[in-house]
Design a protein that fits this description.
Layout lengths: L14 H27 L1 H4 L5 E2 H8 L3 H13 L3 E5 L2 E4 L1 H4 L10 H8 L1 H6 L2 H7 L3 H6 L3 H7 L1 H12 L17 E5 L5 H9 L4 E6 L7 H7 L6 E5 L12 E5 L7 H14 L5 E6 L10 H13 L6 H10 L2 E7 L10 E7 L1
Parallel strand pairs: 4-5, 4-7, 5-6, 7-8
Antiparallel strand pairs: 1-3, 2-3, 8-10, 9-10
Length: 348
């Protein structure tokens, strides 16, 4: 009889690896929901002018003073708040991003991801096992239909879209000479306003669902381009406004799985003139095993929308299947709004 030895036990992860893993698990949901609670109650807005005693702050936002102090202390440990004197709370630069009107504000991002999206993630196993949206399982309908029936949720979602910035990569795309630029699925018009500001000779068309474009007039007016822009409230799955020289799908295609994305691209293809151009912008996943925010955003697309973040080859393949020929690619230059990829295509 041959003597055998037991398999070696796996090495115990070093202390630092355990610490990192524990921190990641604590952030799920502790950190996100703590930030959500501060944003929702308006604590950062109340602190916009400077630090306040926690009792005064609690009275302003309608919170229990002791609980509020504990939340602020925790967010101080994350570098978002600071205790400038005993139980006097102020904001750090990161905390200012949670104010309503701060440049690059993330308040509505925190609120959207702390409410409907957070509850949808409780059914994440549904997405893992079926490849379908967990949001639909929780709410009995898709995300955009839910928004149409729940104005408060839609207001937060549209405010999140409207507080974003235009992707820097659009500055490298071919818009010169375009008389009409159509931003399809452009929500409040932030991206279109940016393009029209750079191309004074062009007119714009903004198309999205009626609830999505409700705040667009004010956004376009603030940027001084409202007189050059036509707003169309309607589903791009029904029809895309015809006749533009350039069609832009910015942060739109990733909302949809391949079947729906092909339906959308077919509608755009039908609307285009023979010499029109399509520009698709998304946070495309680069090759390789390293960290990229698109890999996590891809899970959000799956769980909430049933969509997906694609790689550049996947995007190009999708466009070819929809009857387009890719003529230019613009790779990202850095993180944030400089981390997105643009693909230009023409009818094949």
């Amino acid at each position: 009889m041959t003597e055998t030895t037991p398999a070696a036990l796996p090495d115990i992860p070093p202390e630092e690896t355990q610490r990192v893993m524990r921190t990641l698990l604590m952030g799920m949901p502790w950190v996100g929901q703590a930030v959500y609670a501060m944003a929702k109650t308006g604590v950062p807005d109340a602190l916009a002018a400077g630090p306040l005693p926690v009792g005064e702050l609690a009275e302003q936002v309608g919170a229990d003073p002791d609980a509020l102090y504990r939340f602020c202390r925790a967010l101080g440990a994350l570098g978002l708040m600071e205790e400038t004197a005993p139980k006097v709370i102020g904001l750090t630069p990161g905390g200012h991003l949670l104010r309503s009107n701060a440049p690059g504000a993330l308040r509505h991002f925190a609120i959207v991801n702390g409410e409907e999206s957070f509850r949808a993630w409780s059914e994440v196993l549904h997405s893992l096992r079926t490849g379908r949206s967990a949001f639909e399982k929780v709410y009995g309908t898709d995300h955009f239909s839910y928004m149409a029936e729940h104005p408060e949720a839609a207001e937060s979602f549209n405010a999140m879209a409207g507080s974003g910035t235009a992707p820097a990569v659009l500055e490298r795309c071919a818009f010169s000479g375009a008389e009409v630029i159509a931003d399809v699925g452009g929500a409040t018009g932030v991206v279109l306003a940016s393009m029209l500001a750079r191309h004074a000779e062009a007119r714009g068309i903004l198309q999205d669902l009626p609830q999505a474009v409700a705040d667009a007039p004010e956004v376009l007016r603030k940027e001084g381009v409202e007189d050059r822009c036509r707003i169309v409230g309607g589903s791009f799955f029904d029809e895309v406004v015809p006749g533009a020289d350039v069609y832009v799908l910015c942060r739109v295609v990733h909302d949809w799985g391949d079947a729906d994305a092909l339906r959308l691209l077919a509608r755009v293809r039908e609307a285009m003139k023979p010499d029109s151009r399509l520009v698709v912008v998304d946070n495309m996943i680069p090759p390789g095993p390293g960290f990229h925010p698109g890999k996590l955003a891809d899970l959000q697309m799956l769980v909430i929308l049933g969509g997906r973040e694609r790689s550049l080859p996947e995007c190009k393949e999708l466009l070819e299947r929809a009857g387009f020929r890719v003529v230019a690619e613009h790779l990202p230059e850095g993180p944030g709004p400089r981390g997105e990829t643009a693909v230009e295509a023409v009818p094949a």
